[in-house]
Design a protein that fits this description.
alpha+beta; 5-stranded mixed sheet; 4-stranded antiparallel sheet; globular
Length: 218
């Protein structure tokens, strides 16, 4: 596992955070298996949520409540609704990012993706006490939030749970050595994150049997 640290601002909050590190071999993806996995999981979701009601499903969701404190809409809820009910195609062009997206739809747990080869030094998880600027993954200027859950390396901030990934370490088409953060909230039980890591690892093995994985709970 690549080096990850927690500073006191995060560790004293006792918020669960999981990390899955994956080394994908070149040309090792089974795209038929990926497509079948997506179709199978989406079919199960359509059956499970045939009578979907947003308030019943997300009203007491800890992520929904956490984002609402920052006056934000939980992005996984938006993704779920657009794919399941508004006809948005599932983005399966890049298998590396397809698996965390599928994890979010099936578990409602927030994840992300970063290229480890683009990280400068160890990753430090921290909680900022102010709005700290960084370049978002689309090149736009964004910032952290007080009491946000964030990561930085020796060059700068690489993710904010609220604002998303940075432009420097977000994955590119050639990214093969990556890590997936699986975020918790102050109200998330650790077993939820642990189970999500297992699910994500299973997705990776399904689409790329030759991938090397290592997971950790922080």
């Amino acid at each position: 596992m690549f080096e990850i640290r927690k500073d006191a601002s995060f560790s004293e909050r006792n918020i669960p955070l999981g990390v899955l590190e994956v080394s994908y071999p070149e040309n090792g993806f089974d795209r038929d298996a990926l497509h079948s996995l997506i179709e199978r999981e989406l079919a199960a979701l359509r059956e499970r949520y045939a009578d979907y009601d947003r308030k019943a499903v997300f009203g007491e969701n800890p992520y929904f409540r956490f984002f609402r404190k920052f006056k934000k809409t939980y992005p996984v809820m938006q993704q779920f609704e657009t794919v399941m009910f508004k006809g948005r195609p599932f983005p399966e062009e890049d298998p590396v990012t397809a698996v965390p997206f599928l994890l979010e739809l099936t578990t409602f747990v927030l994840s992300g993706t970063h290229d480890i080869d683009r990280i400068d030094g160890p990753l430090t998880i921290f909680t900022p006490d102010a709005k700290l600027p960084f370049d978002g993954m689309r090149g736009d200027s964004t910032h952290t939030y007080p009491n946000d859950i964030c990561g930085r390396d020796d060059t700068g901030i690489i993710f904010s749970m609220i604002a998303g990934a940075d432009n420097r370490t977000c994955v590119h088409p050639d990214s093969r050595h990556v890590f997936y953060p699986v975020f918790g909230t102050p109200d998330t039980e650790p077993n939820v994150i642990d189970d999500a890591l297992e699910t994500l690892s299973g997705f990776v093995r399904t689409i790329c049997p030759g991938a090397k994985t290592e997971s950790a709970m922080l």
